[in-house]
Design goal:
Helix content: 10-25%
Distance between the termini: 105 Å
CATH architecture of the largest domain: Distorted Sandwich
Shape: globular
Radius of gyration: 31 Å
Largest sheet: 8 strands, antiparallel
CATH superfamily of the largest domain: Glucose Permease (Domain IIA)
Length: 460
């Protein structure tokens, strides 16, 4: 009997020890993984909370989030009452939580320092214990919107053309730029244009695109990292400009020359070069590939330098005949039947075959390679969101990263890409969007629209 009692006592002690060990180790188990995507550093009027929480098997005992400020805690989310948030479970282990936590949704918040605290727990030891984790992030509550003030005067813009503005955006660390309709043009520090001013002074080039309404609203905006935004209308005067219309005849000789060469350079499009498919392949090139190429140009343009690399008007191709102008509305015909319509967003300039093509102004080579409808193409960055594009080249003499001076040879004209004959296709770009190059070639336009404003703002 005593032996049995001792044995039972021994078993009880083992159970207590094992249970204690299990309890101890369960308490040391890793809690759910918490990732705070937003906010980063600031909370404003309408800042979103964006959380990702992971737990094995998607088991959660608790998920809570609160903002702590001035000794008080303001709950902003609890898994027990998720109705105010968008909660999605997109995998077996992971949930996403999103909801606004700015001043509009947590009215007690005050400007100043605060802390976001997120806690999560998962059940362990058959639900007898919880494994917890906590993530906190110090943030600043910003409630006042930025301020913008326009410093330059006399803003005149042609349909399809560009303009330049000098303005102030405070505080100095806010994102700012120009809205033209639904288009956005970023601002740059004014020092990049040679203006001696405080850090809040900015400059921006912007455009009224050929396909935008002539009366598209233009405004200067500023947005801080907390999501607070303000804007002010830009007093400006738009001018209508007529755009040409032309008829382009497509024949079999042209199709047999351009379609196979473009197909060979763009194998991902799987273009058919069979005689009966040449028209269909041309239409894909003229439409689908054109859009893809223009997106590439816009992506390349984002690498612009934050300083103005030129000091005077741009240089046109010398002694060139203009074969096609900016925003020429083209209608394409094959065997007298209309097959397509596109807008030609550049100038086609021709002299003789394989003439030297030179840089229109000082810049840095952003792109030098084959670009679909543009064939062999060079894109120069001139800073502050301004680029120039040279297409259909037979050869290229520069590579990305090269610094070139005005007049430096970039290559020679040719017929690569979607070219009917040897010529240079030249385009000016503002933030990757084509604009009328005639303005940039004009010393009077450059002086009045750009250099005058820089000088009046304190330019050196």
């Amino acid at each position: 009997m005593r032996a049995l009692l001792r044995f039972l006592t021994f078993l009880l002690m083992l159970a207590l020890i094992a249970g204690g060990a299990a309890w101890f180790w369960a308490g040391r188990a890793e809690g759910p993984r918490i990732e705070v995507r937003q906010p980063d550093k600031f909370i404003g009027q309408a800042t979103p909370l964006d959380l990702v929480i992971e737990s094995p098997g998607g088991q959660f005992a608790r998920v809570e989030a609160a903002i702590e400020q001035n000794g008080r805690s303001y709950p902003v989310f609890t898994l027990a009452q998720p109705s105010q948030a968008n909660v999605r479970q997109e995998s077996a282990d992971r949930i996403y939580v999103m909801r606004p936590i700015g001043k509009r949704d947590v009215p007690e918040l005050q400007a100043g320092r605060a802390r976001l605290v997120v806690r999560a727990a998962r059940p362990v030891l058959f639900g007898f214990r919880e494994a917890e984790s906590e993530v906190s992030r110090d943030v600043e509550v910003r409630l006042e919107p930025p301020r913008v003030a326009i410093l330059s005067t006399f803003h005149y813009i042609n349909h399809g053309g560009a303009e330049f503005v000098v303005y102030r955006a405070t505080p100095a660390d806010v994102e700012s730029g120009v809205h033209v309709g639904d288009q956005i043009y970023p601002g740059f520090p004014a020092s990049g244009a040679g203006i001696r001013a405080d850090d809040s002074t900015r400059v921006a080039f912007f455009a009224l695109l050929h396909d935008q309404d002539l009366k598209a609203p233009v405004s200067i905006y500023a947005r801080d990292a907390a999501g607070n935004e303000s804007s002010t209308p830009l007093d400006h005067m738009p001018f209508a400009k007529p755009f040409a219309r032309s008829r382009i005849e497509i024949d079999d000789v042209f199709l047999q020359r351009v379609v196979p060469s473009i197909a060979a350079e763009t194998p991902e499009m799987q273009l058919s070069t069979a005689p009966e498919d040449l028209v269909a392949s041309f239409l894909r090139i003229n439409g689908e590939l054109r859009m893809r190429n223009n997106q590439t140009i816009a992506d390349v343009a984002r690498k612009t330098a934050p300083e103005m690399l030129w000091k005077d008007a741009f240089q046109p191709l010398g002694n060139a005949a203009v074969e096609s102008r900016f925003a020429d509305n083209r209608t394409y015909f094959y065997k007298s039947k209309e097959i397509d319509r596109q807008v030609h967003l550049g100038f086609d300039l021709a002299v003789t075959q394989r003439i030297p093509v030179v840089a229109a102004n000082n810049g840095i080579v952003l792109f030098a390679g084959y670009l679909g409808i543009y064939g062999n193409c060079v894109i120069l960055d001139h800073g502050l969101g301004v680029q120039s594009l040279y297409a259909h080249l037979s050869s290229m003499d520069v590579k990305p990263g090269d610094r070139v001076e005005k007049g430096r040879q970039l290559g020679r004209s040719g017929t690569t890409g979607l070219a009917g004959g040897d010529h240079l296709h030249f385009t000016m770009l503002v933030n990757g969007r084509p604009v009328n190059a005639v303005e940039w070639w004009d010393p009077k336009w450059m002086q009045d629209r750009v250099l005058r404003k820089i000088a009046e703002a304190g330019g050196v």
